[in-house]
Amino acid sequence: MRALVINCSSTPTHHCYNLGARKLADWLKMQGYQVASYESDPGMWELEADLVCLSVIFSWHAPVAREIALRMKSRAEVWAGGPGLFALATWWQRETGLEIVRGLDQRFDKQRGQYEMTFASRGCPVNCSFCLTPETLIQTADGLRPIAKVGVGDLVLTHLGRYRRVTEVLTREYNGIVHELRNGAVSELFPAVVTPEHPVWVRHVSYPTGGPHLTDFKWVDAGNLLPEYSRYSRDVTAFPRTSDEDMPNGNTLPGADWLPCNKDMLALIGWYLAEGYVTQAPGRGYYRVTFCLGHTDSEMEYAREIQALSSAVGLKADVWHVKIGIRVSIYNVKFARWLVATFGTGASTKHLPLWLRRLPSEMLAPLIDAWAKGDGWYQNKRGTDTWKINTSSPDLAVGLREMVLKMGYLATINRHHQNGVIQGRTVNIHPSFTVIYHAPREKGRTLLSDEKYVYSRIDASIQRPYAGTVYNLEVEEDRSYCTPAFAVHNCIVPRLEGVTFSFDPDFIPAPMLCDNNLSALPVSYQEHIISRYRSFKQPLVDANSGFEPHYFDEGTYQRWKPLLDETRAPWRFALDEMRELADVERMMTILKAESPKRKRVYCLVGNEPIAACYERAIRIIQWGGEPHCQFVLPLNWLGDPGKVKLRFDWTSYKQGQDFCRYFNTWGWRSYPIWDYKPRVNEPRPFASLALQTIVEVAS
Q1: Is the pLDDT of residue 203 over 70?
Q2: Which residue in 118, 162, 56 sits closest to 480, CA to CA?
Q3: Gap between the Cα atoms of 547 and 572, Å rounded
Q4: 3-class secondary-structure state, position 528
């Protein structure tokens, strides 16, 4: 049998070593295959094979693998994998009709041989418990759902205000402290219970003269989110306003192409959510839609409004009186069944579909107005127009809040437990939720907002012991998801290399050691790795993934220094976020005797504002190191610069490349970045940093 192993991330002009492809080729030989290995697409020269194996290191090389797969899948079995395809499983299946191998392939991961790279362990030795307890509710496309019941393929709200698909559900057993975070009424109704290391999306706010000033976004471990009541500065949680806007195809309602998706129809839906129910009969099913109103003149006006809206969308509505009020009825089986299928029936079980919540804000306004007339009321509170809408459905309450936030309002949710008396009997009534919303106030210290987020201060962090299963979600593109009050995210290493950390004590030393976090390995295992390099007489040229600053100490330095000194190998570590400054400064102090060339520090760019990325790079230089900047790219990026998701004040992928080029080619040794002009006919991309520096010095 003949097999082709193709490294799709190498090109004729740029060789990229692919450890996985080399191991796979050797493993296939042991299985009896005749193997031909290629460092790029062999083209039409190779068409005869029983098996074609495609390995992709970087996602932007996935189109190369796709072309080979489409050319060969009718001739041979096709395997595809590698870190570059990890976040592209859905795209790959759609483009090729094939599946990928995600994560490590245990068939050949520990294949022995003489390679340029090696791993002495897999996964992350820190064993971060980035998880939530099973009852914590997640905001999904289908409403609130306990995280334990969220599955692969479900759509969840992310910290960027859009819905993205869950690609993996991670679980683990945990025994330790958890934190129940509180930032207002919504978090009290729908508690978020997280492990201490789980990152929460926050933003820093200060209160200089003239009012609140919002600065950097960042991810902060839940265990570090303690209540702060400083009058002058604090971190506040950032909850997204949804940004998705979409009209249904053909401007008709999904599942009811005979009904228009216009403002009249949406207002009628608003009335149904507030006052409507659907009646069914034996043998007939659902057949009538009824709106229940009171006796007053204003209620009669509402009845006429519902009748007029029905007529405008092609439905006939009748108004009639009963003992307890006014009824408006629409006898239309198709409409009744569509309402039940789309929104449900019954006060406590109604819900809002995603297509409705994704409508543009101007289309949502008539729906919200009608809903407020039916189940709400208006008041002017301290000079602010405020609306309140009641519902007994938690899904409706959270969905309504999502829509009014999207429309630019501030909103919260209260809950009321009550008993009712019916004909002299005390009965339990479903809990009532009240959504309260108003336009943002110009003054106020408790809750702030802008066009993308609503900010709330941390009121409490309640700690308690927990023993049991905890859950985490991997989400395409954004790597985050939302509870009703918080946005959270998780770690990347468990997804790529498996949740379980493992040692490989029999590893074969190679010039490049690629373990994720040498600093956090047990001391005895660090010494085992060093001893194995000594016994094999293998020089260590590069500890590539390096030493995590948080776990690096003087002992780590003295332990590894003799081995690295033999080849003058660099000390590799990273400064990816502003919150890591203290750990990196401490590590730099330990390494102060080493030359700058050997303190090569990875510096992620584009994940924070330009000024923050610049400060991190400059700090590395000031502390005696050399930054190696890398612009952040999504795991599913296919190479189109126009498709890079830009954040903060970054304006283009090219600007990110310019930033990296300035630091990686040592431009900082000759001139400041605000004088950097990479292209003659274009303005200096970082000129604004000069003015910002002047302002900071002056202050």
Answers
A1: yes
A2: 162
A3: 6
A4: helix
Question: Would you state the structure tokens that stand for residue 350, as one six-digit string?
Answer: 């109604």
User: What CA–CA distance (Å, rounded) separates 119 from 19?
Assistant: 10
Q: How far apart are the first and last CA of the chain?
A: 73
Handedness of CA 204, 207, 209, 211 (dihedral sign): positive
Q: Please tell me the predicted confidence (pLDDT) of residue 648.
A: 81
Query: Average pLDDT of 186-213?
Result: 82
Residue 8, CB-side half-sphere exposure with 13 Å CA sphere: 25
- Lookup result for tokens 């602010």: 384
Quote the strand ranges of 183-306, DSSP E.
Answer: 192-194, 199-206, 213-221, 233-240, 252-253, 256-260, 276-281, 285-293
Which letter does DSSP use for residue 450 in this model? Answer: -
Using CA atoms, how far apart are residues 125 and 5, in angstroms rounded to an integer? 31
Sign of CA dihedral 346, 351, 353, 357: positive
pLDDT digits (tens, 9 = 90+) for 610-625: 999 999 999 999 999 9
Measuring CA to CA, how many Å separate 377 from each of 259, 273, 348, 380? 29, 15, 20, 11
104 CB contacts (<8 Å, ≥6 apart)?
A: 122, 496, 497, 498
> In angstroms, rounded to a whole number, what is the distance separating the alpha carbons of residues 405 and 241?
6
Residue of 214 and 671 predicted with greater confidence: 671
The per-residue DSSP string of 675-695 comes to G--SSTTS--TTTHHHHHHHH
Q: CA 251 → CA 101, 216, 531, distances in Å?
A: 40, 40, 69
Taking the C-alpha atoms of residue 200 and residue 226, their distance in angstroms, rounded to an integer, is 12
Sequence-distant (≥ 6) Cβ neighbours of residue 121 within 8 angstroms: 501, 502, 503, 504, 515, 516, 521, 525
56-109 confidence digits (pLDDT tens)? 999 999 999 999 999 999 999 999 999 888 778 878 999 999 998 876 777 888
